[in-house]
Structures are given as structure tokens and as C-alpha cells.
Amino acid sequence: MTEPDAAARRMRVVFMGTGEIGVPAFRWLLAAPECEVVAAVSQPDKPAGRKLELRASAIKQLAVERGVPVLQPVRMRAPDAVAEIVALRADVIVVMAYGQILPKAVLEAARLACLNLHASLLPRWRGAAPIQAAIEAGDQASGVTVMYMAEGLDTGDILLLRATPIGRRETGGSLHDRLGVIAAEALAEAWPLLAAGCAPRFPQDETQTNYAPKLARENGAIDWAATPREIDRRIRAMNPWPAAHTFLPTPEGPRQLKVFSCIQHRRESGPAGGVLRADRRGLLVGAGTGAVLLREVQMEGKKRMPAGEFLRGHPVAAGTLLGAR
């Protein structure tokens, strides 16, 4: 095959993403000889940091580095935004963690398919926060679904699934990073099937669906009446964001204390939210059916640190009650 013929067989691809979880899949598309990435679509730059300076998404940063044109429509449903996508004449549109609902005209703009890489084993968790939902629910496994996009929220037919066990100490952050890598592997597995015209598609079982809504900071609040297992799951699921948290009484008033890791203690117990002891090992706090030892914490306005180190500068007396503001 001559070089021009090989180039002619390359598929025109548009990648749509904003979150860092999509970077490995985007990198795979950029490196794949059978793909020509004609554009990246990402959310508009947003203020970040203490100075609130505009910051580009990880997807945009990589696209600029590789010389790929970038589109950043404020509203993907706007007619001019739709027209820009249609004009790209994509063979395939690949979406992961983009952050906007795509109109029907965009879903139908690709010649072969508009694919979504979803960080869940559909139909188990639809919605914006499937990673945290899987950990908090105590699921044994998570994974990535390569699906054909439809107008409903994560309702499209499935092309393939790639599963991975959820580790005993898995956090939202660690599972997020692993699923980003798995998404690239799943896309690489699906691509030749799509190119050959033999990619399968099978509908989701609507009786098995659950919804994982977008997280807010309030979702990290620790309910000390819950069991140690439930508290541990929440702490791990919300690490690093929005971070599980409680409030610690101080002379200046209640201050938020973020919690990033703990150890379950089912043989010790006390009042829910009550500090049983505070020493170099951490803060042992009563829970619904036992206690949890807080191991890594962060007081508002301070840095994240081991609980024992935190206690050296902020002593906490036994009997102190943690809880709502």
C-alpha cells in the first residue's frame, strides 16, 4: 500500500473531553496510525487557584501541545457550535468526561459512530459520579463501558465492557486514574471492530440501572451514626474530591476537618461522633456500630497531613463531639 493510500484509510476523529480521566484515551487516538484527530472539543477555560486565573482543561493543554485545533463552545446546543462539529466531517466522535449534554445533531454528525467512554459497568451506574458511587456502594468491581451515545443520559447500546476489581483500600482518585488507562485500552480494543464494520451493540438492561448524580461538597459530610464500614467507604469514595468532612469544635467556633483515610474499629465503640482518644495513631471516633480511626486529615486553611501530626499542633480532648457546623 502506498503512503497516500494508507493516509486515505485513516479515520477522521473528533475527541470531546474535559476531565483528566480522558487524557489516556486522547493520547491513544493521537498515536494511532489509523486515526486523524481533526479537533478536540473541551469546556471553556475556568478560573482556578487562589488567584482565580483561567486554566485550560487537561484535554485542551494536550491538544495545543500536539497542534490539534480546539473548540470550546459555551453551549454545545447552540446552532453555531453544532455547525462547527458537523463541518468537521468526522468518521467517529469519541467522548469522555466532556461535561455537556450533546444534542441529537451532534450525536448524528459522525459517519460511523459517536462513542462514549463511561467509567462504569453499565447499566450499573449512570450519571456524573459513577466512580464514587461504586466505591460507596461497596461494589466489587468497576470498569469502562464503550457505548454508542443516545439522547438519554448514558442510555445508549453497549459496544464492549472492560471490568476491573475495586481494591479494599481503593479511593475515588486511584480508581479514577486506573479507569482512565482502562478506557484507552477499551478504545483500542473497540476500534478495529468499528473500522471493520463488525462492532457489536446490545441494549442495556433497564431493570439494573442506578443513577449517580453530580457531586457537591455537601456529599462528603460524614454521618457518624453510620457503620464503620459505611464511613470508610464514604471517606475513600470522596478522596480527593469533594473530600469527606466533619466539623471540629474550636474556641473560634466549628471548623471543617477533611478526612482522607481511616481504619475501621468494630470492637471499640462510643457516642456517634465522639472522640474516644487522640494520640500519635490518630483520632478514634465513635460510629454507629463501632469506631473509626482517622489517619489523614486536613483542617480548613491548612495542609493535608497525618492525623498524629495534626494533633501535635491541634490537641483534641477525649469526649469532643464531631459533627455538623
The CATH architecture designation of the largest domain is 3-Layer(aba) Sandwich
N-to-C SSE series?
A: HEHEEEHEHEHEEHEEHEHEEEEEEH
- Number of DSSP helices? 9
**Percent of residues in β-strands:** 25-35%
Q: In CATH, what is the class of the largest domain?
A: Alpha Beta
Q: Can you count the beta strands?
A: 17
Helix content: 25-40%
Low-confidence stretches: 1-7
Which structural class do you get from the secondary structure elements?
alpha/beta
Mean pLDDT: 95
Report on this structure.
- With about 325 residues, the protein is of the alpha/beta class.
- It folds into two domains: about 210 residues, Rossmann fold (3-Layer(aba) Sandwich); about 100 residues, Roll (Methionyl-tRNA Fmet Formyltransferase, Chain A, domain 2), CATH 3.10.25.10.
- It is built from nine helices and 17 strands.
- The strands form four sheets. Strands 5-2-1-6-7-9-10 form a seven-stranded mixed sheet. Strands 12, 13, 14, 15, 16 and 17 form a six-stranded antiparallel sheet that branches.
- Helix 2 packs parallel to helix 7.
- It is elongated, with a radius of gyration of 23 Å.
